[in-house]
Amino acid sequence: MLRFSLIPWEYGVRNLFRRPLRTLLTLTGLTTVIVLVFIVVGFIRGLEHSLSASGDPDVAILFSLGMGENLEYSSIPMRTSELVAASVGGIKEFHGRKYASPELYLGTQITLPEQERTAMGLVRGVTPAILLVRRKVELESGRWPEPGEVLIGQLVATKLGLSPEQLTTGQAIELEGRSWKISGIFSAGGSAFESEIWCRLDELQQAMKRQDLSMVAVTLDSPDVYPDLDLFCKERLDLELQSVREVSYYQGLKKDYGPIRMLAWLIVFLVSGAGVFAGLNTLYGAVVGRTSELSMLQTLGFVRRAIVISLIQEGILLSTAASLIAALIAVLLINGVAVRFTMGAFSLQIDTVSLLIGSGVGILLGLLGAIPPALRALRLPIVDGLKSV
Q: Which phi and psi angles does 242 have, rounded to 5°?
């Protein structure tokens, strides 16, 4: 139980409006820092969401033995898809059609004649069977590609350094020495597939003068069937195959991007530290300018602890307001913004976790920035404080 009288709550609120310019500058600085925190946290959450959304627990992929996680360098025989579908029980089936998708995957230069630029893109040669295996894929506009056409993910424009308006249905792109017309745009639940260009498997093989595949993706009746698929790969030594659950593959990518996430958290720490020092500087100036006022409060009978609590209250009020403004900016302007990355592209995610972290950091900035100048107010003798003007 407190044994001293607190300064009324309204006093701290009124003080913020008594110095509007200083309050506005402090609020702007804190808001800027917190928005930067939201951007970095949104980057981390977006990367994690993209990798998590890309894995399906019922899907497994088969690719070359010894390739690790480098699917673009994998090369397996064209007949692998049919052999797997015929030899392994437990592969999902619909009206006699096995859920097995043969795919050719690579990174290659994409030329955009209308934009007069070239960029590295991700291309996947597919058959209609991919729609059975990649169950999150939805056609947003256009249609399935005919000969000489491609289907692009909704983040391909970002991957190529363009705005979505610069890469639309009907435009032409060039890859592997051929011109292709965009037949449509698809989404895939925020997964990594949204950064890819899909074209007909046979046409991509012709363009690349290849008759092999990069991988075969299959949908299993249940995860319990996976050991049978793995056994098939080990028994067919002539095919030189290995298998991995799709969720395990993308979890492995998550571990590979661990250092990047650590670097992002370090940036959050450094930005927050800069915000604390900026707040310290501002609030120190505020305390120095109110020395006589704080001494008068002590003369009126308010103990120094009450003054410290009042100053901390002002700092937290200001940082809370800045956190709310920054959160509104993050939700309206940052959430869903697409960014380029090595794996392709993904969208910044300002979700509940991001809001909690960003707002928590913002309020903590106000607390840490207010305590040192508040403690400084305790050290100044009352007589000296009253003399300062």
A: -135, 155
